[in-house]
Structure formats: C-alpha cells, structure tokens
Specification:
Largest sheet: none
Radius of gyration: 65 Å
Distance between the termini: 135 Å
Order of helices and strands: HHH
Helix content: over 70%
Length: 197
C-alpha cells in the first residue's frame, strides 16, 4: 500500500466524519427549536442558516481539491483499465483472426498431407515391387544354375553308367571273342611295352 493512497484515505475518513458531525448538530439544533412556533422566524434561525451555509461552503472549499483529485484518479484508473481492456480485445481479435486463418488453411494442409502420404505409399509400393522383381530374378537365376548343375551331374552320372555298361559289355564281348592264344599274345605285347619303358 502506498503512502499517497493511505493519506488520501485518511483525509476522506476525516472529511466523512466531519460531514456526519455537522448533520448530527444540525439535526439536533433543528429538533431543539421545536418549542418555538413553526411560523415565526427567529434570529437564531438566521444564525443557524448562516452557520450551516458557512459550514457547507467551508466543506466545499476543503473537499473540492481532494474530491476532484480522487475523481481524477478514479477516472484515470478507469481509463487505464479501459485502455488495457481495449488492448486485450485487439490482441484477442488478432489471435481469433489468426486462428480462423489457420483453420481455413487446415483443409488444404490436410489435403496436402494426404497427397504426400499417398505419394510416399505409391513410391514404397513401386520400390517393393521392384525389389520383389529383383528377388524373383535372383531366385530364377539360382534355380536355373541349380537345374544346370543337376543336369550336368545327372548327365555325368549317366555317362559314367553308360561307360561302365559299355566296358562291361565290351569286356563280355571280348571275353567271348578272345581265344587263349590271343590272351598270350596280348600279355606278351604288354610285357614288351613295360620292359621297353
């Protein structure tokens, strides 16, 4: 609490007390004059009116500056509050306009976000399909290599089987066609080759 406001309150309390005191004594003096006739104007009545007038004029002169100053202070306080409220109202209006503008653009932004997600989804779909194609090609190449390997292995096995059977057949054929003289002749030829080496 500031000193200026404290002094003003004290001054107003004293002034209010004086006004109440004046009305009390004025009422008391009017009540005591009830014994005289109400129609006659006495000299005391003139003094009373003069005292009352002087008192009212004195109070007016005493209270004029503080009351005017109090009213000015109050008016200034109210004006400051009004200015503050107008400032807050302008800020609120600006905020409301900003929010309304953002809301009006919200549909467009939502549409842009949806389009972006759709675009990303299509890109992901294309990438996944491309990766799947590459994986399928690799699997196909691997399967082709496996088939070729198995084909070569089976072919070589078949050739081996065919050679074995051919040798067995040739051996049987040779055994059936060769005579003991031919056998001696072959053994001699073989020994000559071994010795010659």
């Amino acid at each position: 609490m500031n000193i200026k406001g404290s002094g003003r309150k004290r001054y107003l309390v004293v002034t209010l007390f004086l006004i109440i005191l004046i009305f009390f004594f004025a009422g008391f003096s009017f009540a005591s004059s009830g014994e005289e006739k109400a129609t006659e104007w006495a000299l005391t009545d003139t003094y009373r009116v003069m005292n009352f007038t002087v008192l009212v004029v004195g109070l007016f002169l005493l209270l004029r500056k503080p009351a005017a100053q109090g009213f000015k202070t109050r008016i200034k306080g109210i004006q400051e509050q009004l200015d503050e409220l107008e400032t807050k109202e302008r800020e609120a209006d600006e905020l409301l306009a900003s929010c309304n503008e953002k809301l009006s653009h919200l549909d467009g932004e939502a549409h842009k976000i949806i389009e972006e997600y759709v675009r990303q989804g299509n890109e992901s779909k294309s990438r996944i399909i491309e990766e799947a194609k590459l994986a399928a090609e690799k699997l196909e190449e691997q399967a082709q290599r496996t088939v070729e390997y198995e084909f070569k292995r089976i072919r070589s096995k078949l050739l081996e089987d065919v050679f074995e059977k051919a040798i067995a057949t040739a051996e049987k054929l040779i055994k059936s066609k060769i005579k003991p003289e031919d056998q001696y002749k072959l053994v001699d030829e073989y020994l000559e080759k071994v010795v010659a080496k």
